[in-house]
Specification:
12% strand; 6-stranded mixed beta sheet; two-stranded antiparallel ribbon; alpha/beta
Length: 289
């Protein structure tokens, strides 16, 4: 009898892990994950005939699940479109790069990896390095995706990200704005950004991850190793975390607070707004009073 090698054993384990993850999306978590993913794609018209979508994978739970959901929706073949699973290495340490690659293999995600020097660049920035990093990441992703023939990039922001952004804008930015389900790029002609996880709850994403016993990157940025805003348990004191905690506290007395925040930007009553901006032009209620 032929002896099974360690590599063959690892391949079998990866195959079983991939099968379990896919079956959990199709069955156990179909209502919580696939249904809202497909709904967002339909109502916001995120996937169209002939699209070539760069699914941007950071290595975290959200983007890895997004990749699997894209594979699942492509399997249904309601619309013909192409996928490229794009990973940018902005300067990960060896262990983080290897974790992304091993997770991609285990889940059956054929990733295309390219490198940049973003971490080295923002290393010397004292003011808002995370904001600059995010902006630079998006630019690199747009550029590489366009080079590969894609017309859209997909990011893994979910429902909780959306409502936190809305509330943060009001409390810390003095403005009402939302994280949009799709955007035209202003710097890369013909390119769009889409967010197909728009209606997925973070708790359901975590439940899928834990059910499949998967371990993903939390934050691969090396700022988290020395950042003064981290608590002893590794969590952040950022404005987003403060907002997340505030929403959780409000939910104790108002179970509808999350959906109300989300619906608030779908239900804007312009007759009661003092001023608003449209295409950069400010409009005052006195203009038509």
């Amino acid at each position: 009898m032929k002896e099974i090698t360690n590599e063959e054993r690892r391949q079998d384990e990866r195959g079983e892990r991939q099968k379990r993850a896919e079956e959990s999306i199709q069955k156990k978590f179909h209502k919580q994950l696939f249904s809202p993913f497909a709904k967002a794609c339909k109502i916001y018209k995120l996937i169209e005939e002939g699209d070539h979508i760069a699914v941007c994978i950071s290595g975290g739970k959200d983007s890895m699940l997004m990749a699997k959901l894209f594979q699942e929706i492509q399997r249904h073949r309601h619309v013909n479109f192409e996928l490229t699973f794009l990973v940018m290495d902005p300067g990960y340490i060896k262990e983080n790069r290897e974790l992304i690659e091993s997770n991609a293999k285990a889940l059956g995600i054929p990733v295309t990896i390219f490198e940049s020097t973003i971490f080295d660049t923002v290393d010397h920035i004292d003011t808002s390095p995370c904001y600059l990093c995010a902006r630079m990441r998006r630019g690199y992703l747009y550029s590489k995706a366009k080079e590969l023939g894609c017309n859209k990039i997909a990011l893994g922001h979910h429902y909780d990200d959306v409502i936190e952004t809305i509330l943060m804008g009001m409390l810390h930015g003095g403005q009402i704005q939302s994280m949009m389900p799709k955007l035209h790029s202003t710097n890369f002609e013909g390119m769009e950004l889409i967010r197909p996880m728009y209606l997925l709850r973070e708790a359901d994403i975590c439940a899928w991850r834990d059910y499949n016993e998967l371990r993903f990157l939390q934050c691969a940025c090396h700022f988290t190793e020395t950042c003064s805003t981290l608590n002893e348990d590794g969590t952040s004191n950022s404005k987003r975390l403060e907002t997340k905690k505030l929403i959780a506290e409000l939910k104790k007395t108002n179970p509808y607070v999350e959906s109300n925040i989300f619906r608030s930007v779908e239900n804007v009553q312009l007759d009661t707004i003092i001023e608003y901006k449209k295409d950069g032009v400010r409009h005052n209620f006195l203009d038509e009073y």
